[in-house]
Amino acid sequence: MTYFTDVAFDSINKYGEELCGDKVEVIKTEDSMIIVLADGLGSGVKANILATLTSKIAGTMLMEGASIDETVDTIVNTLPVCNVRKIAYSTFTILKINEDGSVYTVEYDNPPLIFIRGNRYYDVEKRSSTMINGRPIKESNFRLEPGDTLTVVSDGVIHAGVGAVLNLGWQWENVKDHLTHVAGKEKCAKNVTKNLIEVCKNLYADKPGDDTTVVTVKLRKGEEVDMFTGPPKDSETDPWVIKKFMEGEGKKVVCGGTAANIVSRELKEEIIVNMDFYDGDVPPTANVKGIDLVTEGVLTLCKVVEKIKQYIDDLEINTAYKQGDKDGASKLVKMLIEDCTHLNLWVGKAVNPAHQNTDFPIDLTIKLKVVDELIALMKKLGKQVKVTYV
Amino acid sequence: MTIIHVCIGSACHLKGAYNVIHGLQKIVEDRKLEDQIIIKANFCLGECTKAVSVRVNDNPILSVDEKNVETFFEEYVLGRV
């Protein structure tokens, strides 16, 4: 059985700094994923260089199969020595997660990783062999099950609040407790990350005293969404396209009036437009038996792209959609962010007369462009996207 | 029973399909014709250049906007009730 590794990370910079001294590197190999969080000594440019070098070297060498000893040795001998402190230094955490759920971790001086299963924290047994600057490198092996959450934070998180509302900062124990409440409830890694980052931001009163980074990994069963938009170029292929579209195991989404009409014709199921809710911005949704969500096309998709962009750009918890939003775009965004690991797109290339209408706003004229944007955003969120043009 | 289909596809939505639906609902209500006329929203009727596309029963598609809802109603719907 293979699983989907859902990874999400966000950082906030030390107040007044342009660059972040924490660096996260995510590398996908054929059957595993390597994630490195490095926290460079100091802040600003210097820290950024140290962290970037560390994460790049570690990621690249481990991916190519180098041993941890070789990798650490290379890092120690490569990093420039800090003029002030006379040491070359960057803390790091490395996670290697295989598709079957087995995990290998290497930690050096970062706050210990936090492993949550259900609503409980579990201690991970660690062993140490090598030392750098008198501090041990800790290794561990364990196995993740679907639904498990693994969180790695930089010390900016456990110090959150120092110099502002807390004397000693948030502290690791409290971060751990907070995570046991959050991790089980959120389905996707990004929402867990956003939650922690938002708490840190608040504790720092929007003036972080240190670079603050959260990496969350969730092992999930793959969840597919099959999405059909736009009529096929050649209407004779309609029956074939719909047959293929319905064959997939995922949730079914149809975006577009004409597309919905085609689906309705092929499935011999009536379209019932949902009139009990009307949003001025987003055209109504409809119900077709056998389809999970039916929306209008290009306007809804534009809105979806806008909302996902907002979701990615805003560090705060999710301003893009609320649970229970009823408009088509919000429903679709929620599904794409939370309930989707694999997106299969069926994109029709027929020209829609409506979009040739001279009164139509310019940026709506190219639906394919909107779809391309959506694909790029979904990839950015770590989703696997497959596109079939019909 | 007369059914008025109002298109709410992309083009019609932008041209104010909601206002047309709203206008029709109001007229039907004012004239107490609720048990004789049903207003239904429809996905794309395929006549996007005629936005807002409206079809009464199975008759040809007409172009209606929020300003001429009343005239449209008098001319094309009332005669059938």
Key attributes of the depicted protein:
A: alpha+beta, Phosphatase 2c, domain 1, six-stranded antiparallel beta sheet, five-stranded antiparallel beta sheet, 11 helices, B: 81 residues, Glutaredoxin, 4 strands, 35% helix, PPM-type_phosphatase-like_dom (chain A), Bact_Sigma-Reg (chain A), hydrolase (chain A)
What's the number of structural domains of chain A?
Answer: 2
Percent of residues in beta strands of chain B: 15-25%
Report the strand count of chain B. Answer: 4
Whole-angstrom Rg of chain B: 11 Å
Indicate the overall shape of chain B: globular
Mind telling me the CATH class of the largest domain in chain A?
A: Alpha Beta
**What is the arithmetic mean of pLDDT of chain A?**
88
H and E string of chain B: EHHEEEH
Explain this structure.
The complex is a heterodimer of chains A (390) and B (81). Chain A is of the alpha+beta class and 390 residues long. The model of chain A has no long low-confidence stretch (mean pLDDT 88). Chain A has 11 helices and 18 strands. Chain B is α+β, with helices and mostly antiparallel strands. Chain B has a single domain (2-80), classed as Glutaredoxin (3-Layer(aba) Sandwich), CATH 3.40.30.10. Chain B is 35% helix and 22% strand. Chain B has a 4-stranded mixed beta sheet with strand order 2-1-3-4, covered by helices on one side. The longest helix of chain B has 14 residues, at 17-30. Chain B is globular, with a radius of gyration of 11 Å. In chain B, 43% of the residues are buried. Classes of the chains: A alpha+beta (390), B alpha+beta (81). Chains A and B meet through α7 and α10 of A and α1, α2 and β2 of B. Chain B: It holds the Pfam family 2Fe-2S_thioredx. Chain B: This is Thioredoxin-like protein. Chain A: Residues 4-219 form the PPM-type phosphatase domain.
